[in-house]
Amino acid sequence: MSVEAGQRRRLEPDARREQILSVAVRLFGERGYADVSTTDVARAAGVARGLVNHYFGTKKDLYLDVIRVMLTVPEVAIAGLPDGDLPTRIDAIVSWFLDVVSRHSRSWLAAITAGGMGGDADIDRVIAEAIDAAADSVLTAVGLTGSGPAQHAMARSYVGLAVSTAREWLQRGVLTRAQVHRLLAATLLTMVEQVFTDA
Amino acid sequence: MSVEAGQRRRLEPDARREQILSVAVRLFGERGYADVSTTDVARAAGVARGLVNHYFGTKKDLYLDVIRVMLTVPEVAIAGLPDGDLPTRIDAIVSWFLDVVSRHSRSWLAAITAGGMGGDADIDRVIAEAIDAAADSVLTAVGLTGSGPAQHAMARSYVGLAVSTAREWLQRGVLTRAQVHRLLAATLLTMVEQVFTDA
DNA sequence: TCGCTTGTTGACACCGTGCCAACAAGGCGA
DNA sequence: TCGCCTTGTTGGCACGGTGTCAACAAGCGA
């Protein structure tokens, strides 16, 4: 233990909250939602269990903040994409996506898939927002900024393809990065040229 | 109550098990995994709660059987796909997929997305098997029966695209069936002609 | 009608969660 | 330095859900 256990110490609310949150991110990233109890989080943080509820309310509320952290991605360098022709821009956005998802693959890829188990409404909403953000990045990268809801929906579908393909690469290890890149670039080019136009 | 409540009746083990399972499928389809207790299942089935554990063991085991039922799809008429050129066969497999997923959309689409929440290993395995089956259907439909693990992985990725796109159609209602069909057909054609070949 | 097989029940103990009053750490004024 | 007061922190309480198991009874055969 790096911190002095067994001694009661007061922390600023923001510091304590962030400390518990970081511990929760680690635990929920390692194990599943059901396998991590609030007692585990409290013990790993060296804190009474009641304090977790005091700062985060419900366990589900804590989990919501956790996946919010996991899905928070450095939005930098999106606007700095090249202005070449369409295949060049597509290559850039695909490379950027693969860089991001491979950097913190375990947390991001796990969180983006955390929808299920019957699908809690709040969790689905947070994940949907992350997918929306990624879809917006795709649309802006291919130069379809002012686009209708159908294009947004198709972009979200493409993000679903990107996620499932990245999982075959990073989690299953059966695809190489080059294969994933080629698949995502070719399909995105097809979608932009042949499918996005009809809406 | 159609069945006589308050009266104790003996059923054959298979019949009782199937009755409880059908009730559980309905409840888990309506509400989420966490929102359905084994008490709810037992009460809806007019049965003591202990009997649910007697037949299915753990609540998670029951849920595994539930999603197994939800993901069970009439595999008929897959072999009866036409032998035309590639676009024709792709149209056929896409139409077949959209028919299947729209027929029992709520259960199948909900179950195929039930992976997350940190990802229970057993549940992930059942879902992965369903995705594998769908991917095999795609590969046979496009005439790539004897294909390597890379092609299988890409087919699974395509199933991920199909699932996310179908969700935009059936759950969000922002895409029409024609749009979904065009998107899935065009992308599958691109993948077969340009991406599957390099592996 | 009796007895036996076994489908079925109810209760028990355990665990995780949310809540709350009580406690004390640590800064402030005297 | 001492006492007080704010408030971060704790431990215990009650509740609901789960898994298990001995006891019960439904229904068939003798």
From TrEMBL, chains A, B:
Residues 37-56 bind DNA. It comes from the Bacteria. Keywords: DNA-binding, Transcription, Transcription regulation. InterPro entries: DesT_TetR_C, DNA-bd_HTH_TetR-type_CS, Homeodomain-like_sf, HTH-type_TetR-like_transc_reg, HTH_TetR. PROSITE patterns: HTH_TETR_1, HTH_TETR_2. Gene3D superfamilies: Tetracycline Repressor, domain 2. Residues 14-74 form the HTH tetR-type domain. This is TetR/AcrR family transcriptional regulator. It comes from Paractinoplanes ovalisporus.
